[in-house]
Design goal:
Chain lengths: ~100, ~1000
């Protein structure tokens, strides 16, 4: 029962209000892609023990998607951020470095 | 013989006697008794039979850790098995039943298992799989089935009501002993919002029993004072009868409060589950005493030393007059004091240690108790009741030195902190070599969202075992001054995992570790010998710790035995995983009010009440309720469906299609977006026109279908399946928010805003013309066109689309107008014999036309091309969702199972899901298959069975006859035909 802050509406919400969406920052591969690239896109996931970037939807709230950076082992949340980005923002990466190296 | 003592019993009220019934026998008890203490008071020492060997058992403990005294409590709809007699508070008229014994608790036929114990070793169950098959079927399986299951499942539905509630607090304190009370007070004084839960009925934990003095006050008085302060504090919620059940991520804790289990009056909810969200969790859960593994340590009358103390001091009952105490530590000496104080005898203390020099030990010695050092127990003497113990050298193999008469044996193998709640969410443990126990490692706590520890164990749960240590620990942790108490220096404990140390196989087979599942020292050693060296493997192989008590008494002893056999250190072997709940929680409590009508919401269309009043036979469609058919009095459902189909095809039918998903997609990029979401081209659709579209996932599998109407240049109305509206809406939002977020499109789910009524049949146009207001002629509103306007008194959108093959208009109207429009159509249709029809007639008519249904013809492994829908998959578009997936080699294979129609040669209806039989068998000896039935109906129109199915390379095999399975009957022959059984040229819908 994680607590995550939805960056779209600003609420700290329980996991039961959220729908999980799997790994974040997966690049879509279209009709011109090679078999290995398409396999990577459709099936292969990191399943990291440790830092993980993931998709969540505030299903029983604002309905918007957002992304979260979280440690799957310690359950520490490094931050949540907009789904409208191709990569984790700098402040999230800084936070992860600070917590992991510090 | 156990009995009620003449005086004593701080928790019972001797002025309030009451009657309870045990196995049909009335017994007298006092208010405040537990069922266990009441039974002991009535001389009922034997309280259950063990699971595997059916050995007679009595109480071992006095709290939630009790493995033996499990009872069925209550009757009928209030019966519940496997409740611990040690926790069940008695009330007038309480009904309790012993378990796992037949025909009676005193004479149990299953006891033969005990005499044959050598044939039921560790892993017995798994070993039976190695036996020849017939042996398994005729010998082992019937035996195991009869033996399986502990207690009887209730025969009637649960009569009780349960509820749940939420609590948010700064600090949740679990455990209301002196540590918990002190911590709660400290948190309260800091101004924190505090919830304090205690599983028992009383506060103060063990301290009053152990004669603790705090701030010069007897523990009872100190506890009472502490309670008064907490009760007055507005920021503290105190919940007795409430167990901290499980700790979960980020400070989420489930607590289960018992509301009526302990009282006769069963009004109101029986239990209440608290879903607590705590910033900080303080576990003051105490410690549990460990048994000692000596031969015969499961006999009725052998009991944990602390539990015996509890029974004497708290309830004024004894298990015997003369108690021999056997121990490896100082704490059991307190039991000697309590027994002597109550006027009972302690013939000897058998202490396995080489030396025991402490204030407490010397005090007991000073009272004239014989202490035998370096000794162990070789045997428990006596038949049904204990008459003595045979004493041996702890260091030896069990040669008897002397016998000592007694009728009760109190044992102590040391204490283990209750670390369950600490460990549930990942808190790690350290091994304390000196005190032989695992305790929470404060540097490795479970962490919250900030990466900070959110659980703090205090008191005995942290590993502080003496009162002085407990108070000092709480004071340090909570940053307060420690209350005063006398410091103790106990003599060191001796880690004893087997008694005597050199016991041979005979004796090891009589030393119990897990009482409830009948696991002995010999079983653990056998598991290790057979290679089950990991503690998790050994647990499952022997079933150690897998009973309803989850090994609260047995796990540490068991893994110590395993470690010894493997010649490893105990921390190296490690513990098994601690999982919630701490004690079993009844499913009813977890379900709460979410049962019956409240299990899930039911969605009703605006016409629901009309259907109900007009004899609808309901069918659940997801959360919707839809009329399956409208049987007339005396009419079967099949006859009703046939009538509805015929009437619609011949004249006129009317259908409530409101459940159909209606998603409005609008924006400058709407057309571009729908070109990606649908397999077909939607951007070329003209306003005023409709197009049937398919949606696939990225695998290429068909996931939804429906008619899209273009409203204007930037607006589309997408119809989805009834079950698909929500998840297709979510699907669209996912792509718009997470992939193409720069596209200007928005999606609104209008499903419930509009009702949709389908008017179907050759007379449909007459009725609309009778209502008037809009031109619905073939010229003005052709097939696959739509118009908006007035129909009679209603503002409507009319779509000329057909899922039946007939002339058909689907009329969308604001939900609040639905009933009025429906009535107006019924009235206008009287002359044409208008007939409401349900979902089954809808299905039959679509199957007659060969229209596919998502969920029937598709199952998540079917692509549109498998269903002959290639025409709806664009070849012009560069990209759409699923296009790349469909390019994969597997989907190009010529022998894919593809859609065909099926007609049995004898006209019968094929069985739903039946397989088409192919030649030969597979590697498992199963018949090969070459297809399966996906939809099958009796067609009233054709007066024969019709079916659709997926058959290997089916479309190339028209006319071929293949066989389909039937359950319990010979296969039936069917011919492969076109899936369009009715009006193949579409003349009827296009008029």
């Amino acid at each position: 029962m994680l607590l995550l802050t939805c960056p779209n509406c600003g609420l700290s919400v329980e996991e039961t209000e959220l729908a999980p969406g799997g790994e974040a920052h997966v690049k879509r591969e279209g009709p011109e892609s090679s078999d290995p690239a398409f396999e990577e896109y459709l099936f292969l996931r990191d399943n990291a023990k440790g830092v993980h970037f993931e998709r969540w939807r505030h299903a029983y709230g604002c309905g918007k998607w957002f992304l979260a950076a979280r440690d799957t082992a310690t359950l520490e949340v490094f931050g949540t951020y907009s789904a409208q980005t191709l990569e984790p923002p700098a402040h999230i990466l800084d936070r992860i470095r600070e917590r992991k190296d510090g | 013989m156990s009995t009620r003592l003449a005086k004593g019993g701080r928790l019972i009220n001797r002025d309030r006697p009451l009657g309870i019934r045990f196995d049909g026998r009335w017994m007298r008890a006092y208010q405040g008794d537990t069922l266990a203490s009441a039974l002991l008071a009535n001389g009922q020492l034997v309280m259950g039979r063990s699971f595997k060997y059916h050995r007679p058992r009595s109480v071992m403990a006095c709290g939630p850790e009790e493995p033996n005294a499990l009872m069925g409590i209550g009757q009928g709809g209030r019966f519940e098995p496997n409740r611990r007699a040690t926790q069940q508070i008695v009330y007038e008229g309480l009904e309790a039943r012993s378990q796992n014994a037949w025909p009676s608790l005193d004479f149990d036929i299953g006891r033969v298992n005990d005499w044959g114990a050598r044939f039921l070793p560790a892993g017995f169950y798994y070993k039976t799989f190695l036996a020849p098959r017939p042996f398994w079927k005729h010998v082992f399986e019937p035996f195991i089935r009869r033996a399986a299951g502990l207690g009887a499942a209730p025969a009637e539905p649960d009569e009780d009501r349960y509820e749940y509630t939420y609590a948010h607090c700064d600090t949740l304190v679990v455990g209301g002993g002196i540590a918990g009370l002190l911590a709660a007070r400290a948190a309260s004084e800091r101004g924190e919002r505090v919830v304090l839960v205690e599983q028992a009925a009383h506060w103060g934990g063990r301290a009053p029993v152990d004669g603790v003095v705090i701030d010069d006050l007897p523990a009872d008085v100190w506890v009472k004072n502490a309670m008064e302060v907490l009760e007055k504090a507005e920021n503290v919620t105190m919940l007795p009868h409430c167990e901290g059940s499980g700790v979960y991520d980020h400070g989420y804790v489930l607590c289960n409060e018992s509301l009526t289990d302990h009282i006769a009056e069963k009004a109101g909810p029986r239990q209440r589950v608290w879903r607590v969200r705590a910033k900080h969790v303080v576990t003051a859960t105490g410690a549990i005493e460990r048994p000692l593994a000596f031969p015969g340590n499961d006999r009725p009358g052998v009991v944990l030393a602390s539990a015996l103390r509890d029974y004497v001091v708290n309830y004024g009952v004894s298990l015997g007059d003369r108690t021999v105490i056997v121990t490896n530590n100082d704490d059991a000496y307190r039991t000697a004091l309590a027994l002597l104080e109550a006027g009972l005898q302690v013939p000897a203390i058998i202490d396995a240690r080489g030396a025991a020099d402490s204030t407490l030990v010397n005090e007991v010695r000073g009272l004239g108790v014989n202490v035998h050092l370096e000794r162990g127990i070789a045997k428990v003497i006596g038949g049904d009741t204990i008459t003595g113990v045979a004493v041996c050298l702890q260091a030896g193999e069990g040669a008897v030195l002397q016998e000592i008469g007694c009728d009760c044996i109190a044992m102590s193998g040391g204490w283990s902190p209750v670390v369950h709640l600490w460990s549930h969410c990942g808190g790690k443990l350290n091994w304390d070599e000196a005190r032989a126990m695992f305790y929470p490692d404060p540097t490795r706590p479970p962490t919250d969202g900030n990466g900070e520890g959110f659980v703090t164990p205090i008191g005995a749960a942290s590993g502080a075992l003496t009162t002085a240590e407990v108070l000092a620990n709480v004071a340090e942790t909570m940053d307060i001054a420690a209350p005063a108490t006398e410091a103790e220096t106990p003599a060191p404990l001796a880690p004893i995992w087997m008694m005597p140390q050199g016991a041979g196989p005979e004796l090891r087979a009589k030393m119990w570790l897990d009482y409830q599942n009948d696991v002995k020292v010999s079983d653990l050693r056998l598991a290790a010998q057979e290679g089950f060296e990991s503690v998790e493997h050994a647990k499952r192989y022997t079933t150690l710790g897998m009973a309803t008590d989850q090994g609260k008494l047995s796990n540490i002893n068991g893994l110590a035995v395993l470690a010894d056999r493997l010649d490893e250190s105990i921390p190296k072997v490690g513990t098994t995983t601690f999982r919630p709940p701490y004690t079993p929680v009844t499913i009813g409590a977890l379900a709460g009010e979410a049962k019956g009508d409240l299990f899930q919401p039911i969605r009703r269309t605006p016409l629901h009440d009309w259907h109900d009043a007009n004899g609808a036979y309901w069918e659940p469609v997801g959360q919707w309720r839809r009329p399956y058919c409208y049987p007339k009095p005396g009419e079967s459902h099949a006859d009703a469906v046939a009538r509805e189909v015929k009437n619609t095809r011949q004249s006129l039918g009317i259908l409530d299609a409101s459940t159909l998903g209606k998603l409005l997609v609008r924006g400058p990029d709407a057309a571009r977006f729908l070109d990606m979401v649908y397999t077909n081209m939607m951007s070329s659709l003209k306003p005023g026109r409709c197009r049937y579209g398919l949606m696939c996932d990225e695998n290429g599998f068909l996931m939804d279908d429906g008619v899209v109407a273009r409203i204007d240049d930037q607006t589309f109305l997408c119809h989805t399946t009834s079950g698909g509206a929500e998840h297709i809406h979510i699907w669209m939002e996912d792509w718009l928010q997470c992939e193409w977020w720069d596209w200007k499109v928005h999606v609104v789910n209008l499903t419930e805003q509009f009702a949709q009524i389908a008017l179907v049949g050759p007379s449909a146009r007459n009725v609309l013309e009778a209502l008037g207001g809009m031109d619905v002629s073939a010229g003005a509103l052709p097939f696959m066109g739509w118009v908006e306007g007035r129909l009679g008194d209603f503002n409507v959108k009319v779509y000329r689309i057909s899922f039946s093959g007939e002339l058909s208009y689907e009329i969308a109207v604001p939900a609040n107008q639905a009933q009025a429009l429906w009535m107006a159509l019924l009235e206008a249709g009287v002359a044409d014999d208008i007939t409401p029809y349900g979902t089954e007639a809808l299905h039959v008519m679509r199957a007659e036309k060969g229209f596919v249904m998502i969920g029937d013809e598709t199952d998540g492994t079917v692509i549109p091309q498998d269903l002959g829908l290639d025409w709806a998959v664009s070849k012009k578009k560069d990209d759409f969702l699923g296009k790349r997936g469909q390019q994969r080699a597997e989907f190009q294979k010529p022998d894919r199972w593809k859609l065909v129609g099926l007609e049995t040669l004898d006209g019968s209806v094929l069985e739903d899901g039946a397989y088409a039989i192919a030649d030969g068998t597979n590697d498992n000896g199963q018949t090969n298959t070459q297809g399966r039935v996906t939809s099958t109906y009796y067609s009233p129109t054709l007066e024969r069975g019709i079916a659709m199915g997926l058959v290997a390379n089916g479309p190339q095999r028209m006319g071929e006859v293949i066989k389909f399975t039937r359950i319990g009957k010979d296969p039936v022959a069917a011919r492969i035909v076109s899936p369009v059984f009715y009006d193949p040229d579409g003349e009827k819908q296009n008029v």
